[in-house]
Model the fold of this input.
Amino acid sequence: MSQQESQTPDVVVLPDADQLARSVASALVARLAAAQAVHGTASVVLTGGGIGTAVLERVAALAAEPEHAVVDWGLVDVWWGDERFVPVDHPDRNELGARESLLTKVALDPERVHPIPSSDAGFDEPEEAAAWYAEQLAAAAGDGGTMPRIDVLLLGMGPEGHVASIFPESPAATDDRPVVAVRDCPKPPPTRVSLGFAAITAAEEVWLLVSGEGKAEAVARALSGADPVQLPAAGARGKQATRWLLDTAAASQLPRA
Done:
């Protein structure tokens, strides 16, 4: 049994979505600062969705306060867990939401920001964009590796248990490549590019951010050991730590301690 399989996920429950976003933002700033203290740099994989965007807004607010200016944003590498294969300025782009909520408000090095290609970036097919993004990850890894060090990989979760753009019983759920093209998503837009489990489980820490009663059943199933092919969130594990960061509603079907 691997360390990831034997590791018990850390479950943190906050009263509501707003306090969840605030708590995750503070924890993320602290974790990136700690990574920089050890390595000189830090790296994060971003997620979209309501709670993911709320966290980035809170991080931007913290970064504006002198007492919280502990992260050197110029030495943070930013990646994405998945992206919609639509034009670069399309409102469905996770990149657009991240730039509006955080990336334009901190002093990032543009060379360290790694968006997944849009449909108008010169790639005719999502498979080509996925292969290119895998090459970028491998180049950042160096020494023949496929994944650079990722300090924190943020994920949201859908009510049916999807993470990134890995949907239940979809080809992506059994694909062993680090980056995969996703077609015919049950949730629009249907064409996407996503990190696969090989990339997700290579991260040092995976944080799943989940809010709302509509996701409570999937949270409970994932934490009770569901098959990742049927419920992909169950397969999202970090090398060193896996953290489920929930509001009370999302945690409502967990067993009482």
Observations:
- The chain has seven helices and nine strands.
